[in-house]
Amino acid sequence: MLSKSTSINSPLDPRYRRVQFLKALLWIIIVVAPLLAVVNYIREQHSLMVALELGLLAIAAGLFLWLEKQPKAVLVISWLVTLLISSVVAVYIVVSQGQSYSLYWLAVIPPVAYALLGGRWGLLLSAAFLLGVFSFISVTEATWSDAPFTIDSLLNIIIATTALIILLRYIEQTRSDAFHFLHQHSERLKSIAVTDPLTGLFNRVQLDHDLNHSLVKARQSDSGFSIMLIDIDHFKRVNDTYGHQVGDIVLVELAQILRTRIRSTDVAGRWGGEEFLVLVPNSTSQQCVKHAEIMREAIAHFSFHDGIRITASFGVASFRNGDDSESLIARVDKALYQAKAEGRNRTVSA
Ligand SMILES: Nc1nc2c(ncn2[C@@H]2O[C@H](COP(=O)(O)OP(=O)(O)OP(=O)(O)O)[C@@H](O)[C@H]2O)c(=O)[nH]1
């Protein structure tokens, strides 16, 4: 399902890492092969090696272009590149007969096979390759002469180590790309999970969480807190007169009024439908009523979409010892009910 819904250019796609790694690998071959050809030509006039290296360059360039055109062929190209690199290292080891520290290149095979073929096939191919080389060494070693440490051996070690570092860097780079991408997605999902899609305020999930958190804090310390429950008066009339869409716009505008009136420590959210809840830390009932009145008046004086005028009723309740979220909500609900019953567009505290 993941590969169907994601593109090969997305770090979430399992093929992404392989494509990036393949490109890096082919680039290394495209750069290193002609360099080695020049060195071999100048130092040893070894025309067979030069021809092999130029052939390798041509194959790598061809595979690179194929991959650019058809990234979906990544699996076939992965196998071809792994076999190509294994063959080149094998030929080099056989030709060198233990000279020039050619065996050092063996270190490159497992990371290449692992990154391109995955855990199981990578392990199998690496094991088969190493077994083959060790069998070859055990049969031919008797005929080998001691390998002196020469400039050639040093060059081999430097180039193979550089290739290894670049390969590992690309493995790490694609891993961290994927991690970064997933992290961003998970942050986005977290935010979606606690946000009301219409108003952009917190939703009930977050309000419940914050309410419980405030209750725990209030029980442990002397810091009280209050909540206000806000319900738009006769909102059904707005919907019936202007339509549901206009009703939605009014809800968004009301959310904006709340957002701009609350203190930075307050938490405002949509409790459901046309009801909003504001959590006011470190405040007594009287302070919260004052705060609520400012908001109530702001709503009553605001000209909403199309000049619509609305009012809202406010219930206020403060934490008391022994409260849990149900008792507190029941109290604030009762206060709001009373505000409605007394004629609406008012604040009642319980
Ligand atoms: N446009 C819109 N309307 C909503 C939404 N959620 C709830 N409502 C409407 O809010 C109205 C609530 O109606 P009632 O519960 O009868 O309350 P009221 O008309 O506000 O009257 P009082 O609360 O008694 O003052 C209903 O018409 C719902 O359809 C929403 O997301 N968008």
Could you characterize the architecture of this molecule?
The protein is 66% helix and 9% strand. The radius of gyration is 35 Å and the shape is elongated. It has helices at 2-5, 14-44, 47-69, 74-96, 109-140, 151-193, 204-220, 235-242, 244-261, 285-300, 325-341, and strands spanning 225-232, 267-272, 275-281, 312-318, 347-349. The chain folds into two domains: 2-188; 204-349, 2-Layer Sandwich (Alpha-Beta Plaits). It is α+β, with helices and mostly antiparallel strands and 350 residues long. The longest helix is centred in the middle third of the chain and has 43 residues, at 151-193. The chain is built from eleven helices and five strands, in the order H-H-H-H-H-H-H-E-H-H-E-E-H-E-H-E. A five-stranded mixed β-sheet has the order 2-3-1-4-5, sandwiched between helices. Guanosine-5'-triphosphate binds at residues 198, 231-236, 239, 244, 247-248, 251, 273-274, 340, 344. GO terms for molecular function: diguanylate cyclase activity.
Element layout with pairings:
Elements: H1 2-5, H2 14-44, H3 47-69, H4 74-96, H5 109-140, H6 151-193, H7 204-220, E1 225-232, H8 235-242, H9 244-261, E2 267-272, E3 275-281, H10 285-300, E4 312-318, H11 325-341, E5 347-349
Parallel strand pairs: 4-5
Antiparallel strand pairs: 1-3, 1-4, 2-3
This protein binds guanosine-5'-triphosphate.
Organism: Pseudidiomarina piscicola
GO molecular function, one term: diguanylate cyclase activity
InterPro entries: Diguanylate_Cyclase (IPR050469), GGDEF_dom (IPR000160), MASE6 (IPR048435), Nucleotide_cyclase (IPR029787), Rev_trsase/Diguanyl_cyclase (IPR043128)
